[in-house]
Design brief:
Order of helices and strands: EHEHEHEHEEHEHEH
CATH architecture: 3-Layer(aba) Sandwich
Helix content: 25-40%
Largest sheet: 6 strands, parallel
Structural class: alpha/beta
Distance between the termini: 9 Å
């Protein structure tokens, strides 16, 4: 069934202004103008972020929605997909953000606007742990684009976290997936947008 609603979740310190989010939005608006697009600015609290997402998609048809997530957004997208049963595309997804972000407690700046500051509180690590899910229940509903050249996350951990899902493993690349233009067609095809 074609997806009529698409949620995009950005990564840590990122925003809806990220390169991949803007590319996805432009492609969706141009090729699938009837699709409802949502890419919210996520608050630093993982609990608040997922409550915000849950409220935002409460009226969406579960069988006609999909989610895309990058980095920490990939971790969140997994949570959304497991909660709703929707299709998910993961772009260099964070696998253990509770472990990885524990060293980023304190004042942070936004990647796209360094004048924007936020505080990553110690309690947010526990909130991340509370969102962890076991093995995905429907691996056929997942597609991941993972770069071996990711300088932030280990590609072996990323692929190991999602056994049985479709993976496009890039020999080089980087965490930002700077060559996202080369993969967007496969992402769109997998999402089956209306």
């Amino acid at each position: 069934m074609a997806a009529t609603h698409l949620l995009y979740l950005h990564g840590f310190r990122s925003s809806p202004r990220s390169f991949k989010a803007r590319k996805m939005e432009a492609a969706v608006r141009e090729r699938h103008p009837g699709v409802t697009w949502l890419c919210p600015q996520l608050p630093p609290s993982p609990k608040a972020a997922m409550e915000m997402v849950r409220d935002a998609i409460a009226g969406w048809p579960r069988e006609r929605m999909a989610v895309v997530g990058s980095s920490l957004g990939g971790f969140y997208a997994t949570w959304v997909a497991e909660e709703t049963g929707c299709r998910a595309v993961l772009l260099n997804p964070a696998v253990d953000p509770a472990r990885d972000l524990a060293r980023h407690i304190g004042e942070q700046t936004s990647w796209h606007d360094p004048s924007q500051h936020f505080y990553f509180a110690p309690g947010f690590v526990d909130e991340l742990r509370a969102l962890e899910r076991g093995p995905v229940r429907h691996p056929e509903r997942y597609f991941a684009v993972i770069a071996k050249g990711d300088e932030v996350l280990d590609w072996r951990e990323m692929t190991g976290r999602y056994p049985g899902i479709r993976v496009k493993l890039l020999e080089g690349g980087d965490h930002a997936l700077s060559d996202f233009d080369r993969h967007i067609e496969e992402v769109l095809a997998f999402l089956r947008l209306a």
